[in-house]
Amino acid sequence: MAFAVSSIMLFVLLFLLALSATSQPYRNVTFGSSLTANNANSTWLSPSGEFAFGFQQIIQGGYLLAIWFNKIPERTIVWSANRDNLVQEGSKVQLFADGRFELSDPRGQQIWAATLSRVGLTYGAMLDTGNFVLANNSSVVLWQSFDEPTDTLLPTQTMNQDGRLVSSFSETNYSRGRFLFTLQTDGNLVSYTRNFPTDDVIFAYWSTQTLGSGFQVIFNQSGYIFLVAKNGSLLNYVASNAASTSQFYQRAILEYDGVLRHYVYPKSANSAGGRAMAWSTMDFIPSNICMRITQSTGSGACGFNSFCSLGTDQMPNCDCPVGYSVVDPNDRMSGCQPKFAPQNCDEEAHETDLFSFTEMPNTDWPLSDYAYFKQVREDWCRQVCLDDCFCAVAIYRDGNCWKKKYPLSNGRVDSSVGGKALIKIRKNNATTHSSGSKKGNRSTLIVTGSVFLGSSMLLNLLLLSCLLLYVLCFNQQKSRRLQPNQVLPGPNIRRFGFKKLQEATNGFKEELGRGAYSTVYKGIVKNDNIENVVAVKKLHKMATEGEQEFKAEVSSISRTNHKNLVQLLGYCDEGQNRLLVYEFMSNGSLSNFLFQSSRPNWYKRLQIAFATARGLCYLHEECNNQIIHCDIKPQNILLDESFTAKISDFGIAKLLKPDQSRTTTGIRGTKGYVAPEWFRNLPVTSKVDVYSFGILFLELICCRKNFERDVEVETEMILADFAYDCYKDGTLHLLVANDEEALNDKRFDKFVMIAIWCIQEDPALRPTMKRVVQLMEGSVEVPIPPDPASSITSM
Q1: Is 388 annotated in the active site?
Q2: Could you list the residue range(s) of the whole structural domain that residue 517 is in?
Q3: Would you list which residues are annotated within the binding site for ATP?
Q4: Ranges for the Protein kinase domain (predicted)?
Q5: Can you say which residues are annotated as belonging to the binding site?
Q6: Three-state helix/strand/coil letters over 76-125
Q7: pTM here?
Q8: 623: in domain
């Protein structure tokens, strides 16, 4: 599509575009001007009113400082300042007299600030191009939103080398997602999959192949998007279908599915020309993303165990195979999980006969295979997968057989794939069996009832009277049970009788762990004839014996839903007995994993740290009612069969008597992890968990306990003090002696700095867990931390 274009003509065009952009009338934002996030938002409009700068409410109580198309009903966002950190109502953006332009939360803490190229700021303005600028008295632009795009480019906007667009996470979640579009410093324009949530890239799935020549991406006034060389010659079209900017609003956006699309929207019914008054696609790259991504790590175009297919509208669809369900119904790219119990690898189980295959033609999950057989029959391929408990899918194509195991990645359905996928599922899953049993029981009741009712008219009348009496009594009891003020646990929480849990645990025989206020036992409960291993926590001393209070707290815990929290399955409140039933975590606690004889892998330790941080962020920021854990420590971080970290015992603090789980009077938590404010009679906030996480993070980084008596140097006994001394002296390598993986990770210093911020003695200095996650992911720069015992201005 590339063709030669006169360098002189292109430079003249660029000059005219720049002239037209700078000659627009400014609607100035003067010193002291501010906008506040609330339900009756005020905005700063461009002269024509086509663009607005201000706050948009994204979720209940969460606002985005953004620029959007203001004259269309969709109010489509084209730029945002705080996409990874929504602010609360009452947050403010302000132009200060000293030349600062900042976004701050209701407490005055800075969330975002424009970085100016030079001093002398005097005003800001929202332009009709969709560009928000900060300028001096001479109208020299000191900062502009066009230089810091999020996921969108607009007409007259250019992207220079090292410029980038990062997709949103989903259609409704504007935080940074899984895909990157960037003009590299080597001149190549590339689309990558990101190693989410970090900034590393995994796989280049589209490229202009312009290494050494690409200089600038231009979205011109005529609606073309193209890549030019330094001398102005055209190298490649990114979007070659144009539309008039006088008749159509336009944008190019890297969407959450990884496709860069050029959209247009009619400015009036007359200019629509038969088009609907909505955004319509003019161009997009790549043409079929399902077939373009084949990466060795990561899930591919869609989530793990799902498959990607191109719809009739050329949009990629992410779907689950038969027998699977989507992990997160709100995120179609979250992947799929089997709805049936996996095949038992125990030879005595003899489960081969319990599984069969569903077929999907032209389907494959490339690079997920672990075995390959040439020139075999299809029935042989089926049987070899059926006999292998690790085999989840077999691919049979052209006489060849591939065996694949979980998780399946790079799933795609396309006519060019050929062959077929044989997906192994359980023959009679629990749902079918259960419904069949219920149907059989119902049939039996009908037959039995018919026999009795047909015996005599008198018996019929008697039975009818008894039935009416029963229905009346049942409805009265039901109405009494379901009073509107009654507290009910979450919909998926099961209430157990004490005897049932006693049987499930074989008389509370196998103890998994013991604490100051509870003992945990291993148990097996049946649900629709499927046996599930569970952990039963028997609470010893409760804060109240009242049924409603206990259920209220159980309800709060049960309504949490996050992959890094241990799931509550049920409870028991029979008599004086108070028990909680949790999912079983087969790899035990982080304490056992971390402090063993051999040092765990550095990257596995980091995964655990990230998972714990995200779980705490959810408890603090995303629950309907904020939950403060009060006892974050390695013993309360549990690991499942794949060593995914999950926080346990959250919300338990409210269920305990005041003298439970203390180190000293009035203090909850565990010695070594307790925040200093517990000792100072200060209000306890979520920052106590941030402090505990900081200690835990240091333990994960250094792979040692927070206090070790048997050390050669006395100053190394307390890990927090030792870490800060090493940071201050520039000897951080001493923290991880002989750990080459840690020392070779360029993020190592940054992680230690984050931990030091978390363990500041002044709670106001500690970041929130949401900010901690952002610092860890690299979306926010880590400032230099002060001495934990100091009182320097907070982050």
Answers
A1: no
A2: 488-584
A3: 538
A4: 506-780
A5: 538
A6: CEEEECCCCCCECCCCEEEECCCCCEEEECCCCCEEEECCCCCCCCCEEE
A7: 0.55
A8: yes
